[in-house]
Amino acid sequence: MTRLEKPAAFLDRDGVINYDDGYMGTPDRIRWMPNAAKAIRRLNDAGYHVFLFSNQSGVARGFFTEQAVVLLFDWMRAELRAQGAVIDDYRFCPHHPQGSVEGYLQDSDWRKPGAGMIRDLMTHWPVRHAGSFAIGDRSTDMEAAEAVNLPGYLFAGGDLDAFVAGILANQR
Ligand SMILES: [Mg+2]
What we know:
The protein is α/β, with parallel strands linked by helices. The protein has five helices and five strands. The longest helix has 16 residues, at 66-81. The structure holds magnesium ion. The site of magnesium ion (MG) has 7 residues, from loops.
């Protein structure tokens, strides 16, 4: 069976779908960005794959484990899904060269500004490059998008759905 090729929205996590309060490791610390679920639903309805791609150097720094990161992503996806918003998949990079936890200290092309996470998602999913884009709150998110020739949109916080609606309006 051929899977349907669709454009993708690559969303940074911290600072985009939730506020970035620094090294987010547990659900109790998550404060959702206004209209985050609505924004993701809008992308689902418009025919986009929706992916998260997130640096999680807190693992390398010993603030939380890789397993905790997975649990948090899964919790967030479940919370969103209960509101009809589907995250198709996600990638995160636990590595950081200045960390302290053995096994996570190598430099990785997955770590933004590297584009390894986007490339990996594009390998595992039928992504149509044309029309795909990224949203992030840092210049490193923009650099990762640029590295794979995707438009990057810098989000300063606020109503995520209004921001996404603006992007989609300009795609047509
Ligand atoms: Mg961020």
